[in-house]
Design a protein that fits this description.
homodimer, alpha/beta, Rossmann fold, 14 helices, about 40% helix, Nict_dMeBzImd_PRibTrfase_arc (chains A, B), UPF0284 protein C438_14871 (chains A, B), Nict_dMeBzImd_PRibTrfase_sf (chains A, B), nicotinate-nucleotide-dimethylbenzimidazole phosphoribosyltransferase activity (chains A, B)
């Protein structure tokens, strides 16, 4: 059993008002890298931020980490277009950061990454995968992908008040920029992702298609973005049992969820972590709702009989994070890269 | 507690007679990628080979995997110049595959990778690290690095008969190609690695230096290559307690080991896994000896009281491997990369 975190970015997140996945818009590019680090290590390592919403709601990655500590599941992080270095180990499927969907071809890497992810799904020696995502701005690209496929389902938001009309406006501009009509990509999932999506959706869909072909039990752990990934997988012709595991917060926000799950032949599992303590009470106030595999992790916690321990374990994770800190220690920023050498005398001279 | 596998390649391994880390020389480039997959998943995933020596001795990665299953340690694989795609998640420190040391500057990425690895060591939130390596040809580059630092210690070999005079010949050519003399890089570890080493050694050394600065307990799990990395770390000025944990097979092969450990102020731990059953009896016949963190893993197994279970657990890992298979399923070869897309109609057309 392994939880896969598909982590990437889209410039769409920088449109003001679109995403709550960062204390301010300049930091959302770091959120997926930091989320992956929190799940792997329990805290940010290379990333200079601890992701919180503008009002201080902690990232759902802390919940996923807490469940990892409680249950011991294995993790696999897929680089689906990370924009910033992460200290979390990742696999490469050829994805690159996505551009704003109001450009004509925001995700040129979508077809290749879909295929590479499908092959990973075909090759992984696992009985069961739970696949989650972290990509700020991802509900807007999910909405565009639904429309590209000719599907009418709505999407949720990490903000308490879903900026629905702003999203519709962005999506309309996206269709205009790519000079296509809603439904143009029905049964053409890679085209939908390439012209209207983000780099995470085709990777989730490709992994799902490959894993199902491979006989692996697949649960998509998340909200309407994972629903869009399921739609892509079904439009790619994947059959086989598929579960969508989400949080009660997300399910309350999207009354159409059960119908949508039916439409894509998904078993729906909704788990309520019962958060009451500050700052987790912000979830109960409708913030964040999902992300970083939280719904899938909660399903596993429930199955393994530790759901009641998740709140305390999450508070424990949060106690080692510092949501106020925007800068961390000497490893902050881009510790990777061949040019990272210091000024020591033994570097720059010849032999 | 985390085991770090520093995995990379050097073209030096392609010199006939240098390395036993692959059934034949054309496959050694896959060995580090496959070793990382075996530790992470229990079997090769993207890699088309299961690493065995030409005589069928299985890779020490199977032993490290067995101990992971017995003890549950966390793993971090560092890409220190992998030449082939791996399905094991990795972190990037800017390393690239090393060229043959008989070229003038085989590892231009050494200084930057050393520094990036040092920053990782400074940032990792761990109490203890056990660092191992997988790099075919690595004892030859280790020998060259010893000489570059002005140190006289000998190196071991994955072959039962150490091709010592071939290695000395290659090292002499390497010094000639870089136009330097033994000892030229004393106290200049990055220069030693850049002009005479492989990409793995500076990453192990950088991680060690950073982790020691960070107050992390560091054990180098391996043989004379890890001894060379310790020499680099000491020549970089690192003090602090440092342990070298190796196998009884390696220690028997290198009588000078205790003196060398003394010289670099290393505590030496030697663990005998007591292998008797085929094909693990090949270790007792002097093959492989070390690698992929085996000595460090055995130390952990001993500490946690499961050393007696390692042989059976390793045979269990080997039972799911197929040492005869040179090709695996549809995920073989380069599943990664943006051009991996198939010929489906929805890929290549415009929108």
């Amino acid at each position: 059993m392994r939880v896969v975190l598909v982590a990437g970015t889209t410039e769409t997140a920088k449109i003001p008002g679109i995403s709550a996945a960062g204390a301010d818009p300049s930091l959302v590019g770091h959120t997926p890298s930091a989320d992956a680090e929190i799940i792997e290590y329990g805290e940010p390592v290379r990333s200079p931020v601890t992701p919180v919403s503008p009002t201080g709601c902690p990232t759902p990655a802390a919940v996923t980490r807490a469940v990892k500590q409680l249950t011991g599941f294995d993790v696999l992080t897929v680089d689906a277009g990370l924009a910033k270095p992460s200290a979390a180990p990742t696999i490469d499927v050829g994805a690159r950061p996505g551009r704003d969907i109001r450009e004509s071809e925001p995700v040129p890497t979508a077809p290749g990454a879909f295929e590479a992810a499908r092959r990973m799904g075909l090759a992984l020696p696992e009985d069961e995968l739970v696949i989650g995502e972290t990509v700020p701005g991802g509900t807007t690209t999910a909405l565009a992908v639904f429309r590209a496929l000719g599907e009418e389902f709505p999407v949720s938001s990490s903000l308490p008040d879903n900026p629905t009309s702003l999203k519709e406006e962005v999506v309309a501009e996206a269709f205009e920029a790519s000079d296509v009509e809603p439904g143009f990509a029905a049964h053409k999932p890679r085209r939908a992702a390439r012209y209207l999506g983000d780099p995470v959706l085709p990777v989730v869909a490709g992994l799902t298609v490959g894993a199902l072909e491979n006989g692996i039990d697949v649960t998509l752990g998340g909200g309407t973005q994972l629903l869009a990934a399921a739609a892509l997988a079904r439009h790619a012709g994947a059959d086989g049992d598929l579960t969508l595991a989400t949080t009660s917060y997300l399910a309350e926000d999207v009354p159409e969820l059960a119908d949508a799950a039916d439409a894509f032949d998904l078993e729906l599992t909704v788990t309520d972590p019962g958060f009451e303590t500050h700052p987790l009470d912000r979830y109960d106030a409708g913030e964040a709702k999902e992300g970083a595999g939280m719904g899938g992790a909660l399903m596993l916690a429930d199955r393994m009989g530790v759901l009641d321990d998740v709140e305390a374990a999450t508070l424990d994770v949060l106690s080692t994070l510092d949501p106020e800190a925007v800068e961390t220690g000497p490893a902050a920023a881009d510790a990777g890269g061949a040019d990272a050498g210091g000024a020591d005398a033994d570097i720059d001279d010849g032999p």
